[in-house]
From TrEMBL:
It comes from Velocimicrobium porci. This is Sporulation initiation inhibitor protein Soj. It catalyses: ATP + H2O = ADP + phosphate + H(+). Residues 3-183 form the AAA domain. Dimerizes in the presence of ATP but not ADP; ATP-binding is required for double-stranded (ds)DNA-binding. Interacts with DnaA.
Amino acid sequence: MSKVIICANQKGGVAKTTTTVNLGIGLAREGKKVLVIDNDPQGSLTEALGYQEPDSLEITLAQIMDWVLNEEPFDITAGILHHEEGIDLMPANIELSGVETSLVGIMSSETVLKEYIDMLGNKYDYIIVDCSPNLGQLTLNALVAADEIIIPVQAAYLPIKGLEQLLKTISRVKRKMNPKLHIMGILLTMVDYRTNYANEITEVLYQVYGSSIHIFENVIPMSVRAAETPAEGVSIYKHDAKGKVAIAYEELTKEVISHE
Ligand SMILES: Nc1ncnc2c1ncn2[C@@H]1O[C@H](COP(=O)(O)OP(=O)(O)OP(=O)(O)O)[C@@H](O)[C@H]1O
């Protein structure tokens, strides 16, 4: 079966999408078969992989979830797009927010994404899910489908409060719905150690969570080159192959593979 890794944090703009793209393509560069799923109505993963107008796509995750929910038969490859750097993408657009609303109050609505992923069988070695910046129905679906969670945290503000809420949700899902759920680690992103703030936050994270949650030693540095990549529709390996962010995501990829 595929290993399902989700990038989740209800805080916006912490590099969930950037991590999904560069871990996904990083794994493909290591010969793995990878599907990335855009589980966010903003469609930023879809855009970051070069589909600048997600609203024009006919089959997206919204349609797939609708089919699963209504138990309609469909071709399992429907909607899957192929990116030039060797990964597949299940795209999303604004229609997904309609699906999210329709899930509220429906029986077993939290298992829809898992059902889809189960249908894919062993087509992929890794499935990486990019979550929305909230703890709503779509993120709940991702938590239920996941084996591992990577929690990107931007080292530029005090993240502790938001993390507590996320960790509580994770532990509840683990207890009630998905016992195999495991936090692979907290990933510090957009780190600029020239600022005292980044050092302080790193220290606080280790103090508060270091003994209970793995914190990736390898951090993702801040770089304008990384900020440019979504507009190019490619990974950091293509946009700035020798840069520090490419090297950091390569390290992360190795660490993820070492978990196998
Ligand atoms: N290492 C980095 N250095 C500089 N900028 C970065 C870096 N990583 C990501 N960014 C930029 O920061 C912004 C937020 O990143 P990203 O979209 O990956 O976050 P997100 O958590 O997925 O956001 P959302 O919560 O909206 O889904 C983007 O403009 C992205 O290009």
